[in-house]
Amino acid sequence: MRTKILILITIPLFFYGCKKSTYTSKPQISLLPLSSNVLTQGQILKFQLEFTDKEGDIQDTLWVQKISRTCPTTPGVQFISKNKIPDFTPTPNLKGTLEISFVYNANVTGIQSIVGCTNRNDTSFFRFWMKDKAQNRSDTIFSPDIILIR
């Protein structure tokens, strides 16, 4: 009986020791669920992006692109926003959350404004990608459709 117990304890420890790290040099990002995907004018749209990075050197750039499905040729409706990620001391195997906000068709200090179609409701989606200090670029991720009520 004593031998069986020892084997049961040893096997899980062996597999635990062989477990590979899920952190990579290329930043990994994922979008956390949105509180709402329907906005009226003046509402704030807040995105939370969870990230991991092996070296923890994500202090470079986060890009956000808004793409309209409803009126893609209307000037100002589509955009790419380049956002500087604040400097901090890198920590190996870094995991955290970045938050970026947009206000729909209003002026709010410190928050970038987005607009929709001029004459009807707009359905848009957002693309996100980031680059770290070593120039490693994450995959591009997409938001669900966002409805902008006119």
How would you describe this structure to a colleague?
The N and C termini lie far apart (73 Å). The protein has one helix and ten strands. The chain has a single domain (21-148), classed as Immunoglobulins (Immunoglobulin-like, Sandwich). Residues 1-17 have low confidence and may be disordered. The longest helix has 16 residues, at 2-17. Strands 2, 4, 5, 8, 9 and 10 form a six-stranded mixed beta sheet that branches. Strands 1-3-6-7 form a four-stranded mixed beta sheet, with no helix packed on it. With 150 residues, the protein is mainly β. The chain has one helix at residues 2-17, and strands spanning 28-31, 38-39, 44-53, 61-68, 79-84, 94-104, 112-114, 122-131, 141-142, 146-148. 11% of the residues lie in helices and 39% in strands. It is elongated.
Form type: elongated
**DSSP E strands, number:** 10
As a percent range, the share of strand residues is 35-45%
List the helices and strands in order: HEEEEEEEEEE
Q: Helix proportion of residues, in percent?
A: 10-25%
Structural class, from secondary structure content?
mainly beta
Number of helices: 1
Per CATH, the superfamily is Immunoglobulins
In the predicted model, the low-confidence regions spanning at least 5 consecutive residues are 1-17
Q: What is the CATH third-level topology name?
A: Immunoglobulin-like
Radius of gyration: 21 Å
CATH class: Mainly Beta
What is the typical, i.e. mean, pLDDT?
86
The largest β sheet comes out as: 6 strands, mixed
Calculate the terminal CA-CA distance, rounded to whole Å. 73 Å
CATH architecture descriptor: Sandwich
Q: State the domain count.
A: 1
